[in-house]
Predict the 3D structure of the following.
Amino acid sequence: MPSLPDVLPSKPGPSKREFVALVALMISVVAMSIDTMLPALGQLGRDLGVEHANDTQLVITVLFLGLAAAQLVFGPVSDNIGRRKAIFLGLALFIVGSALAVVATSFTVMLVARFLQGVGAAGPRIVAVAMVRDRFGGRAMAQVMSLIMTVFILVPALAPAIGQGLLLVAHWRFIFVLLLVQAVVIWVWFGLRQPETLAPASRLPFSLRRVARAMGETVRTRVSIGYTIASGLVFGAFLGYLNSAQQIFQDQYDVGSAFPFYFGVLALAVGGATVLNSRLVMRFGMQRLARAGVTSAAALSVGFVGLSFAHAGNPPLWMLMAYLGVDFFCIGILFGNFNAMAMEPLGHIAGTAAAVISSLATLISLTLGALIGRAFDGTVMPLAYGFAGLLVTSAGVMLWTESGATQRPNHGEETPAPESVRS
């Protein structure tokens, strides 16, 4: 099958800038659902009768569980009924979950609500990536994904401060009211401005056999499965940080209401990396940048294990911030590139491929991140060991992917766009 051009024929709809902003807002539903809650986890746990502090991490973990499970459904469904209907379905489920969380009176009901939020968030999260693949390919897709991640990363930088601000003037339940309002805004904006990106002639009949074949092709494509695993390992380390960030900063280092500041600074490190990546990827290519990012992050993490051990698991706060800031910058180089490289050979089954890749990466990261978070013992040692182990392993997986791939996508040279696009 001939390779797809970097820039696919344009379709009527929003400008590239508006498209990036809209997709970023849709994808940010997940980040908003996580990061606005972080300052409220302690209060939420007390109000809902949680006995063990580490159990409040389930508010984060269960959402990711729903996200991972539903992605496998939304991708194939969007290949059949179109991107718009699939996104509307996801938003509707997310709104129901948010409303249930607002009125939850027990921790069990809260977890059910969070699972529904995760299932619903999978719609805009996974189908938005397929929409990008509908319009772009190759390095152009990597550039657009990096721009989307740049806008998206501002959400983790600001969301904890938004959550903390709401806690100062209102009950933590109003955080879920905010999430509900965000979903409604996306519904209206998307419905009014974004046309369908999947032509009727390109839609595929929904059948379990076809879905299984598409999943099998994704898993058998060494480039795709390799970068998916590498991405899952990296995000597993990051999810371990998300799970334990509130306890590390507010309990171990006693930063109190300043927690959103520290969290936001580290989120901006990731954002800065994605901005830089969007500029450099067209010049240097995805592989070269990803290789530099993962090897640098792995080396830094191994060194931090030694520093943490020397300080009995309680290094100075400035040292922790310096390490995480540089390491997150390196990790920020990886997110868009790993995803684009995994998707590159699978444009002809973009919806299902995006679902399988994202779901598998999420399941890997969910398991590993939960282990790191649940291991929190009042020190940073579980986090340090987790980052070092997973980043070193990710570097090894990337090496395996590159050295043995027989179906290598075009990461190095530009594929010229068709005359209709160039003109």
Notes: Residues 16-196+210-403 form a domain with the Growth Hormone; Chain: A; fold (CATH 1.20.1250.20). The CA atoms of residues 202 and 298 lie 41 Å apart. The chain has a mean pLDDT of 84. The longest helix spans residues 138-169.
